[in-house]
Amino acid sequence: MERIRGKLKSIAEAEGIRMDDDALLLVARRGDGSLRDAQSIFDQVIALCGTDVTYVAILEALHIVDQDAYFRVTDLIMSQDAAGALALVDDLFTRGHDIREFLGGVTEHLRNLMLAKTTGNTSLLEVSDLYRKRYMEEAKKFSVSDLLRYQRFVGTTESGIRWSTQPRFRLEADMVQLVTLPRAAEIGEVLSGLDELKKKDLAESPPASRGIAQLHGTTSPRAGPDSAADSPFGLPPRGSLGSPAPASAPPAETASASAAAAGPPAAALQSPTNSSSVSPTPANAPPAVARPFNSSKPAPAAQKPASGASKSAPAISEREVQSRWQEFLTAVRQRKISLGTVMDGTWLGGVTGNSVRIGCRTEFEQSSIERNREMLAGLFGDLFHVRLRIEGVYDPQHAPAGPVEQAPAAPSEDHPIIAALKRELGAEPL
Fold first, then answer.
1. 75 and 54 within one domain
2. Which sign does the torsion angle of CA 46, 51, 53, 57 carry?
3. Which residues contact 354 (CB under 8 A, 6 or more apart)?
4. CB-based contact 72:81 (threshold 8 Å)
5. Judging by beta carbons within 10 Å of its beta carbon (0-12, 13-18, 19+), is residue 72 exposed, middle or buried?
6. Domain count along the chain
7. pLDDT of 273 above 50
8. How far is the C-alpha of 5 from the C-alpha of 11, rounded, in Å?
9. Is pTM, for the whole model, over 0.70?
């Protein structure tokens, strides 16, 4: 930036144009790092302002927002003056300034404050010496976290206002929100606040003996028959959940203990040789688990089903699947028409355990079912609300009687298209 300003200064001196350093720096900054753009702006300024150019004249000629307006923004943030923010937006629109140029200037202004706050100097700032001192004084009023938050907020406003149909309304709302943002709390302040809370809790905590008793789950002096009623929602008081059980057993446990002393149940005394006379357990009934009569005695083993009982009962009956088999084929055809056409010649082979067997006349039908097994299982589950495994079985010997496909009916000879084919082309029916 200094090199561009020096080049412009040498051009001005060669052409006899008087321009102060602040004006030269402003033209160099408008070039945005490009000497060619800076020279083009320099020519525009000479054409508009003549040979005697000042900083204020350039601001008015190019409608540039003054640097003081950006310091006004940070002053509004410090005072949280929402009315002043609205007045600033009104002044910008009255003077005809570009909103996006203003927001870009605010972002650069916050960046300058952050650099001055972080580095402690103004060597990285591209401003005049007058503003360098002002930035150092202004940076002391803000923290780095606040400056970063403000910069992100203005960046969001700048990107969102580009697509807004009412840019002034958006700018007014965001400026009011910017100047009223709460200040970020420093970590040291938060930690000191936590230390004060800990000290306050320690000062108001009960004696150590009472705390140790509560940790071990002992009953408090208020525990009693009415302690649950005193607690909110009828819950037992703290510490009662982990208390040991009373020494005296309830009547139900006493009765069960006496029943256990009388002897094992009659079913357990039966001889193993008479197990065939016992009626088999139904296949769909859950296994019966014996309940222990006393904690000192092991529970008897669960009664095993008879040898004739089925090991795994099907989740759905074959009759139900057969009754809705055509619906299943229709669902397959709707999902994948090629697979539905292949499965037109298949049949329900049976439902065993957790699988559904589909009979196939050809190996091609079987391979098609195996390739689409997951899709068929999903369609079956959607229709019957049960997830079973689909298996294709090549079994042409047990295929149902009747042809797989019916031959299409011969077209009528009276049809006009057929008559035209016979007449014009000499076609004959096969």
1. no
2. negative
3. 312, 314, 315, 388, 389
4. no
5. middle
6. 3
7. no
8. 10
9. no
Q: Are strands 347-352 and 355-360 parallel, antiparallel or unpaired?
A: antiparallel
Q: Is residue 287 part of a domain?
A: no
User: Could you read off the pLDDT of 364-398 as tens digits, one per residue?
Assistant: 888 999 999 899 998 888 888 888 889 988 888 87
Q: DSSP readout, 283-295?
A: TTSPPP-PPPS-T
Torsion region of 236: left, alpha or beta (phi above 0 gives left; psi -120 to 50 gives alpha) = beta
Range of the domain at 51: 2-62
CA angle 147, 151, 156 (to 5 degrees): 150
Spatial contact of 239 and 214, defined as CB atoms under 8 Å apart:
yes
CA distances from 300 to 119, 187, 256, 283, 294 (A): 81, 64, 15, 22, 11
DSSP 8-state code for residue 150: H
- 351 and 387 inside one domain: yes
Cα dist. 61→47, 96, 147 in Å? 10, 12, 32
Share of the chain above pLDDT 70, in %: 70
CB-based burial label for 188 (10 Å; 0-12, 13-18, 19+): exposed
For residues 324 and 379, state if they share a domain.
yes
Handedness of CA 85, 90, 96, 99 (dihedral sign): positive
Considering the domain architecture, whether residues 47 and 81 belong to the same structural domain is answered as no
Does residue 177 contact residue 77 with C-beta atoms inside 8 Å? Answer: no
Same domain, 79 and 127: yes
What is the three-class DSSP state of 249?
coil
CA distance 23 to 53: 7
Report which residue type is found at 272: P
